[in-house]
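Lecture 7 notes: from sequence to structure.
We start with the chain below.
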Amino acid sequence: MKKTLILLLLVVFIHLNTLAQKNDTGNWFIYFGNQAINKKW
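Predicted structure tokens for the same chain:
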């Protein structure tokens, strides 16, 4: 029973990760939006 539950949770977790984001563009916008501009530029 415990092995079945763990396997089910693992499958659901992997499935949700594949649906999380279709492309990486949003990640780059978030990253650059949170970074301060260097004063040397």
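Points to note: The chain is about 70% helix and 0% strand. Residues 16 and 41 are 40 Å apart (CA to CA).
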